[in-house]
Amino acid sequence: MIDLNEKDIGVFVAAVERYFHQITATAPMLRSAWLSTADEPLPSHEYTGLIEVSGDFSGNVYFSTGRATIEHLLVAMREPIRDESNLLDAVGEIANTLAGNAREYFGERLVISVPTTLRGPAPALQQRACSHPYVIAIQWQRHEAVLVVNLGRRN
Domain Chemotaxis phosphatase CheX-like, which positions (predicted)? Predict the structure, then answer.
């Protein structure tokens, strides 16, 4: 398995910036980005949208944030805040949009699943598909989120 390169990761960074700017007309601040080490748990928040990836790649991409972030994004999209399932649907849609934007760059070689949504910590988020998953810490207004790109390219 070959880790993604800097240009590949840049596609995901651009997807995050484009998403927030299109939805809210306010760009997020990318607080930091790093390669995770084997001894460090991958970060997550209260709500997570997980996209499994196959094709020429293996692994997953997930977007994770807290309830307040999702509620504020729903308000920005003029969507109602109804219940827990509404929040889970929203975080899944965000993850799907971000992975879909990356698929435009990678093409048919990147096959993405429908989103799986999770509340709270989940063992699936700690399974590593590459030696060093890429973590992008996001701040939008006062809200924190993370995008984890846990992908390897098949030889």
Answer: 47-138
Give the pTM. 0.93
Q: Which helix (H) or strand (E) holds 67?
A: helix 67-76
Domain ranges of the chain: 2-153
Judging by beta carbons within 10 Å of its beta carbon (0-12, 13-18, 19+), is residue 83 exposed, middle or buried?
Answer: exposed
CATH topology of domain 2-153: Chemotaxis protein chec (3.40.1550)
Q: How far apart are CA 1 and CA 129, in angstroms?
A: 8
Q: Taking the C-alpha atoms of 121, 125, 126 and 131 in order, what is their torsion angle to the nearest 10 degrees?
A: -150
What does the alpha-carbon distance between residue 49 and residue 68 come to, in Å, rounded to a whole number?
Answer: 15
pLDDT per residue over 21-62, tens digit each? 999 998 899 988 898 988 889 999 999 999 999 989 899 999
Kindly provide the b/e burial profile for residues 32-48, where b requires at least 16 CB atoms within 10 angstroms of the residue's own CB.
eeeebeeeeebebbbbb
Please state, as a whole number, how many other Cβ atoms lie within 10 Å of the Cβ of residue 55.
15
